[in-house]
Amino acid sequence: MARTKDFDEKEVLNKAINLFWLKGYNGTSMQDLVAGLGISRSSLYDTYGDKHTLYVKALESYQCEASGRLCAIIHNSKSAKETIRALLEYITSELLNDQSHKGCFLVNAEVEVAPHDAEVNQMICQNDQQVEDVFYKVISKGQESGEITNKQDARALARFTFNTVKGIRVAAKTTNDKAVFDDIIKLAISVLD
Questions:
Q1: What's residue 73's pLDDT?
Q2: Residue 31: what are its φ and ψ, rounded to 5°?
Q3: Where is the HTH tetR-type domain (predicted)?
């Protein structure tokens, strides 16, 4: 007869996200996971396989939740520029409220793990393309309505905006000066004029 798990898998996965996010993949040992997740080593292996599999599941969960929050902002904004500004301000606010300066879990994975791990690289590339496509759709809609300049290609503007997001996420690891990010957002929005 199979044993039932005596822990909440979602709660454990959230703890794993926080641990990997704070310490990085390479900085998190199996002992860190056992202690931080509050489950036995055998339960960890039985439920999640190995450290790498748990890391990938943590990235997937984080990506899914982040996508949901971005979609909510897009659906609640009225104009294209308002949507872009709201997305940039939300991302900045989320980062500035993090006292640990962890940055973005996905960007951290892109820098630390993706160059050496084909599975993580593919996941990051797919996520990046999805987010870029979101910006592209918003910008294209804004160009069609005349709200956003047609002087630049919509795809190029989407790539620029997404690269701005990545830059904000990296900068937030070392500074929490809101004025720095306000300047970045102001300039990024001005490119759309």
A1: 84
A2: -65, -40
A3: 6-66
Residues across the chain: 193
Q: How many CB atoms lie within 10 A of CB 165?
A: 20
User: Measured between alpha carbons, how far is residue 167 from residues 1, 2, 116 in Å?
Assistant: 52, 48, 22
Specify the CATH number of the domain 63-191. 1.10.357.10
Burial 18-42 (b: 16+ CB within 10 A, else e): bbbbbebbeebeeeebeebbebeee
**Dist. CA 96–CA 12, nearest whole Å:** 25
DSSP state at residue 174: T
Q: Which amino acid is at 8?
A: D
| CA 149 from centre of chain | 28
d(CA 183, CA 90): 15
Per-domain residue ranges of the chain? 63-191
Contact 41, 30 (CB under 8 A): yes
Return the structure tokens found at 143.
């160009």
Residue range 122-142, pLDDT digits in tens: 999 999 999 999 999 999 999
CB 87, CB 70: distance < 8 Å: yes
